[in-house]
């Protein structure tokens, strides 16, 4: 079986067929009969020239076939046998129908199970395998550290020559999908690049290929950006090509987590080697590890070594400030980024007026302060429809301001538009991101792994 199984989730069959024909040898289309219930199963398999995994998923397992029509579902699946598909998915606990047993001379069986959230029975199931040529176990990640619970059984399967894929659904289960090969899995499921994911957390085929997930080996270490939200992060696209160019056996992923205790647990269960820390963990996670924050970068040579930390946000901000006009600065926000910004500015001798929801400042006070610069360090701008923060204070600052700094690195935020309309020199969030991420990459490449 190829490493990538691409679920054809397209709304129209012609789109799905075109996608399947574009897949390379490393990817096998998964034909979900429940997504095309009116079509003739044999004809669909024939159109794919037998090269597919045929599945018909129940509603209770994320599919569309009614649970109460189990007989109809199996009959529909069996009709696909006339097309002689290369693989067929049959649920782990089902007896093999006689029609399928007869067809096993030319059809291989993938035995699959989707367990309820909180259930981790993979090791027990591996002790009592059903008949089949490959096996798939799917759970749900309630905590980031849950991914680590799959490492031992996946390694066991690899050592025993068992074709197994075991992963967790949901945004916190992304590591189990991306690290599948490194941990011992034989294949994983991907979303088509031109279609929606079939399940929560399913990654596009192009992403898995870019990360070289199929080529990861047990010696690969894991790094990532940790916080919430992080799924939008540019970090993987920035760091992974640099790791690959440096021949470094590391993979960088978004790691969804908003609590320090949960993050500390995940550091151990996943043997994480490098972290970019973002909101809301820049203060709480370093403190939980006994380090003085705020920090945005942690790294260690191996899981047995102590963590080292720094704040590349501070480095990037200090570099940007050196090119901006001197004078007092209006600082918006009070989180970890705001604290870093204030420390850098005050160390450089700049006067700072800080405004936040818990420490309001009147527009008149801002006008009297006459800031030459404005630093936007709130979280506003992460969502598309977020307004600019503290509009009255921004209006009061406009008469004296000459420059602005935006920490949010999404394009076209309301604050960035305000700065542009006010004809201010703008240091965009993307500029700060590039500078701090470059400094992080150097630490990871030099300090993580062998």
Largest sheet: 8 strands, parallel
The CATH architecture of the largest domain can be named as Alpha-Beta Barrel
Integer count of domains: 2
What's the CATH C level of the largest domain? Alpha Beta
Gyration radius (Cα, Å) is: 26 Å
Question: In angstroms, what separates the terminal alpha carbons?
Answer: 32 Å
Q: Which bin fits the share of residues in helices? A: 25-40%
- The proportion of strand residues reads 15-25%
Derived structural class: alpha/beta
Short précis:
This protein has helices at 13-22, 41-47, 70-79, 98-103, 122-126, 151-159, 174-178, 180-183, 205-210, 235-245, 260-269, 284-288, 312-321, 336-347, 363-369, 391-397, 414-421, 429-447, and strands at residues 4-7, 27-32, 53-55, 87-91, 108-114, 134-140, 164-169, 188-190, 221-227, 250-256, 272-277, 297-299, 308-310, 329-332, 352-355, 373-376, 403-406, 425-427. By secondary structure, the chain is of the alpha/beta class. The strands form 3 sheets. Strands 7-6-5-4-3-2-1-8 form an 8-stranded parallel beta sheet. It has a 5-stranded mixed beta sheet with strand order 10-9-11-12-13, sandwiched between helices. Strands 15-14-16-17-18 form a 5-stranded parallel beta sheet, with helices on both faces.
């Amino acid at each position: 079986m190829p490493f990538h199984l691409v679920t054809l989730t397209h709304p129209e069959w012609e789109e799905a067929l075109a996608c399947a024909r574009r897949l390379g040898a490393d990817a096998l289309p998964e034909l979900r009969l429940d997504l095309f219930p009116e079509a003739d199963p044999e004809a669909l398999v024939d159109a794919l020239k037998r090269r597919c995994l045929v599945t018909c998923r129940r509603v209770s397992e994320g599919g569309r076939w009614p649970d109460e029509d189990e007989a109809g579902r199996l009959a529909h699946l069996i009709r696909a046998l006339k097309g002689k598909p290369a693989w067929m998915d049959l649920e782990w606990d089902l007896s093999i129908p006689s029609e399928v047993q007869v067809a096993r001379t030319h059809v291989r069986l993938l035995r699959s199970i989707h367990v309820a959230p909180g259930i981790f029975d993979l090791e027990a199931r591996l002790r009592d395998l059903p008949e089949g040529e490959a096996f798939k176990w799917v759970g749900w990640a309630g905590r980031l550290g849950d991914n680590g619970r799959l490492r031992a059984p996946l390694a066991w399967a690899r050592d025993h020559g068992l074709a197994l894929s075991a992963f967790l659904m949901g945004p916190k289960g992304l590591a189990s999908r991306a690290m599948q090969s490194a941990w011992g899995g034989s294949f994983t499921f991907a979303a088509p690049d031109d279609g929606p994911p079939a399940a929560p957390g399913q990654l596009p085929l192009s992403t898995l290929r870019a990360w070289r997930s199929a080529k990861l080996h047990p010696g690969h270490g894991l790094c990532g950006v940790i916080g919430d939200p992080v799924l939008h992060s540019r970090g993987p696209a920035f760091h992974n090509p640099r790791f690959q160019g440096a021949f470094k056996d590391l993979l960088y992923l978004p790691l969804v987590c908003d609590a320090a205790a949960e993050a500390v647990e995940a550091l151990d269960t996943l043997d994480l080697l490098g972290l970019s820390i973002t909101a809301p963990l820049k203060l709480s996670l370093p403190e939980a590890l006994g380090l003085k924050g705020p920090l945005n970068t942690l790294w260690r040579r191996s899981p047995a070594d102590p963590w080292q930390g720094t704040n590349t946000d501070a480095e990037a901000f200090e570099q940007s400030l050196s090119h901006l006009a001197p004078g007092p600065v209006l600082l918006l926000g009070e989180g970890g980024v705001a604290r870093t910004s204030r420390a850098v500015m005050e160390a450089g001798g700049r006067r700072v007026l800080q405004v936040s929801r818990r420490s309001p400042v009147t527009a008149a006070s801002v006008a009297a302060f006459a800031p030459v610069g404005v630093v936007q360090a709130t979280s506003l701008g992460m969502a598309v429809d977020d307004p600019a923060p503290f509009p009255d204070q921004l209006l009061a600052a406009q008469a004296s301001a000459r420059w602005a700094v935006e920490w949010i690195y999404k394009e076209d935020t309301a604050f960035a538009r305000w700065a542009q309309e006010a004809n201010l020199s703008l240091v965009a969030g993307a500029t700060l991101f590039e500078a701090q991420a470059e400094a992080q990459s150097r630490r990871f490449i030099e300090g993580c792994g062998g």
